[in-house]
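Box 4.2: Ligand-aware structure prediction
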Amino acid sequence: MRLFQKKNPQTPERPVPAHIAIIMDGNGRWAKKRGLPRTAGHKAGAETFRRIANYAKSIGLKYLTVYAFSTENWKRSEEEVSAIMELLERYLREAIADMDKNQVRFCFFGDLSRLSPQLQQEAALAAERSKKYAGVQVNFCLNYGGRDEILRAARRFARQCVDGQAVPEELTQAQFSDLLYSAGVPDPDLIIRPSGEIRTSNFLLWQSAYSEYYFTDTLWPDFTARDLEKAIASYNHRSRRYGGVKK
Ligand code: IPE
Ligand code: IPE
Ligand code: MG
């Protein structure tokens, strides 16, 4: 099995995994530490994402999946949710305008129907217009929840059965994967969670079955390319056995 996509052109001795996923956590605490409103943390976090996505592209990463807003994040104050949504809109508008410069392919995982029509439109436009780029694919998880994703897939499959297009006993893991938001995307090799929390918070529950995890206390707005390199270096020392025995 091929674990690595290609050699890192900046540090050629270190191979880069094909797919890295990041739980972009710690924005609120970053702001609090500075006596700023939580929204300032989200703004700083958006800048960090911009830098990390560019860096990911420069080292030849194939897929970068980022958790931007969960199905549970609606529990936050109306003020905070609107500020996050505004930042997302602004980010997407700029991403669409700078598309030819950045050459990033955008994909969206999550139930976008609950987002504003404006945000839905921008997401659709970003995905459509960036299809042509062959470099890194950024999977933006928006109103995403792992359980919600699995439940939707189960409902879709049940519907196919009721309609006589599928047979329950014949469902395979590969077919089920194709019913998820991540259809066609290989499972993440490495999942990074900054901010010191050691939990998945409903991120990529199905896809992470054999992912390697990397946790760091660094808060997302402080996360740098160097932190990403450290995570990749840690990944490169792991032995992935998938339940087997290493030869
Ligand atoms: C992550 O940062 C951003 C979102 C969940 C939208 P948080 O806002 O969760 O930051 P902390 O965890 O409160 O520090
Ligand atoms: C996970 O972070 C979701 C995102 C980063 C978008 P949370 O801050 O929502 O997770 P919990 O509440 O600490 O588990
Ligand atoms: Mg958090």
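In the box above, the bound molecule is magnesium ion. The pocket of IPE (ligand 2) is lined by residues 23-25, 67-70, 72-73, 197, 199, 201 (CB under 6 Å).
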